[in-house]
Amino acid sequence: MDQRLDRGHSTLTGTDQRTRTRLGIFLWGIPLVFLAVFFFLPLGRILWTALQAALKSTTIAFNIRQVSEPLWFTTWQAVLSTLLTLLLGLPAAYLFAHYAFKGKSTLKVLTTIPFILPTVVAAAGFNALLGPRGLVNLGLMHLFNLSSAPITFMNTLGAILLVHVFYNTTIIIRVVGSAWSQLDPRWEHSARVLGASRWQTLREVTIPLLRPSLLAAALLVFLFDFTSFGVILLVGGPHFTSLEVAIYQQVYSMLNLPLAGLLSVVQLACTFLVTLIYTRINGSRNIPLMPHLNSEGLRTAKTRSEKLFLHSMTTLLILLLTLPMLAMVLRSFLRLGADRGESGAVAIGFTLQYYQQLFINSNQSIFYVPPAQAAVNSLYYATITVILSIGLGLLATYAITRSARQARWLNTLITLPLGASAVTLGLGFLVTFNIPPFDPEHFPLLIPIAHTLVALPFVVRSVQPVLASIPASLRNAASVLGASSWKVWREVEFPIIGRAALVGAIFSFTISLGEFGATSFLARPDRPTLPIAIARYLSLPGDLNYGQALAMSTLLLLVCGLAIFMLEHIRLPGVSEI
């Protein structure tokens, strides 16, 4: 039967060769044109701007100093953040890979939320917990009758490192924990029987087997820390300047586009190098970015040391991952200070005022943009991002799946925008598309297009394994029975890849909803998104502005939590990971 199907498929291929050639050009052409116009062209303009700046000998010495200082800070804080993330993430990965305990699935969801949480929400959470108007400082001030906040957390290096660990611990848990759970326990048992101690077994057996996953996870964490923008800008404050922050400052504070372009080139060179190394490691072993942790052979903690490890590790993870978010939600319902310009006694206690004010222009300002309108803008951009990323992602996935020879370099091209930071993308768009009607003021679709560049690799990584797992005999059988190519896709392939496409759509939606770096360059003042509005309100004085920022952050947190819940409960046919 299979031979007859193969012969029939060969006949169909011969008669429809021209159609398939046109289809191949279509599959390849549209994603490549999209990348060429909206990724490589803006990067080319940045390179040209940087080259022009480098040719001006009168400013080259000054530029070297302005490049070296943010480059050095960016590098060493990323290295330190990565080491701290590994320090917490590796024991947590061991916990998820080897132990079964009550509430594990809930804890797994909690550890995943920070991965897609918008930067401004994380900043608002830690601000609500440990900031000068946070619950801890306000509680200590009330308890000891202090006039100022006793804990200085915001605008410190410790704040930057802690938020980076908060964000990236889930990467170590997911990538390393997934690989750890799949190791054959007999190898470790054999080493112990032969006399190896627990540490010798870990050093000589376990770590060599986990080395590809460890390297991939560490490089990915380093890449995210190296390209961190919102964390350093909102949590670190003006005392710390990374490459990303320096680019932003040179554009908006100094109006120095040539130096901003030079900084972007340095940043691109570093991130592309890390991305290339990660791609080679990831491509050789197919290490997933966000795998499901479906471990077999889990055990319960029985000895005293195992119970101590289990309870201490789960407590540490819960405190780190939930306290900032719980403080943010609680603080958004509490009035603990005076509004801007308010005098007299302040009514302290539970309130819904911050949520109600999201829809009211209490000052009747003509320049006021209601936070509710910012939410509408974000939903609009996120919807367009989903449409663009799913459409382009499906085309790119089919091109990769059907062309084995060219699959690697097309996959690499699609992954490149992850190596270019959102700030660099925003600057490239600002420099390239600066003439009406395609400038940010007249063409608001530039924002979802920038979001699509970041979301597209997630769509491809979600759909490609599922599409590759579909047996060719299914398509051949449908073709022999008279189904057209469109009907084969509609009746055979789409029902299989539909859930994978939904996973990609969820990633695209949440990425767009929380994107801050590129949007800060492209969003008009009268068309802010939720992250832009949150950052704006956090910087304003008065408890009302602060409460509104926390209320908006809470709403974004709810959306991200719902997205993670959906991702955890979607199982893809043919694969167990995304």
List keywords for this structure.
578 residues; mainly alpha; MetI-like fold; 2 domains; two-stranded antiparallel ribbon; 74% helix; globular; disordered N terminus
SSE inventory with pairings:
Elements (H helix, E strand, L loop, with lengths): L1 H14 L1 H38 L5 H39 L5 H13 L2 H12 L4 H10 L12 H25 L3 H9 L4 H29 L3 H7 L6 H10 L4 H29 L18 H28 L2 E2 L13 E2 L2 H4 L14 H32 L1 H16 L2 H11 L13 H23 L3 H9 L4 H30 L2 H6 L7 H9 L4 H26 L10
Helix pairs in contact: 1-19, 2-12, 2-15, 2-16, 2-17, 3-7, 3-9, 4-7, 4-13, 4-23, 5-10, 5-13, 5-22, 5-23, 7-9, 7-10, 8-9, 9-12, 11-12, 12-16, 13-23, 15-16, 15-18, 15-20, 16-18, 18-20, 19-20, 20-23, 22-23
Could you give a short description of this structure?
The chain is mainly alpha-helical. It has 23 helices and 2 strands.
What does this structure look like?
This protein is an all-alpha fold and 578 residues long. The chain folds into two domains: 1-24 and 352-578, MetI-like (MetI-like fold), CATH 1.10.3720.10; 59-331, MetI-like fold. Helix content is 74%, strand content 1%. The chain is built from 23 helices and two strands. The protein has helices at residues 2-15, 17-54, 60-98, 104-116, 119-130, 135-144, 157-181, 185-193, 198-226, 230-236, 243-252, 257-285, 304-331, 353-356, 371-402, 404-419, 422-432, 446-468, 472-480, 485-514, 517-522, 530-538, 543-568, and strands spanning 334-335, 349-350. A two-stranded antiparallel sheet has the order 1-2. α3 (60-98) crosses α7. The chain is globular, with a radius of gyration of 26 Å. It starts with a helix and ends in a 10-residue tail after the last helix.
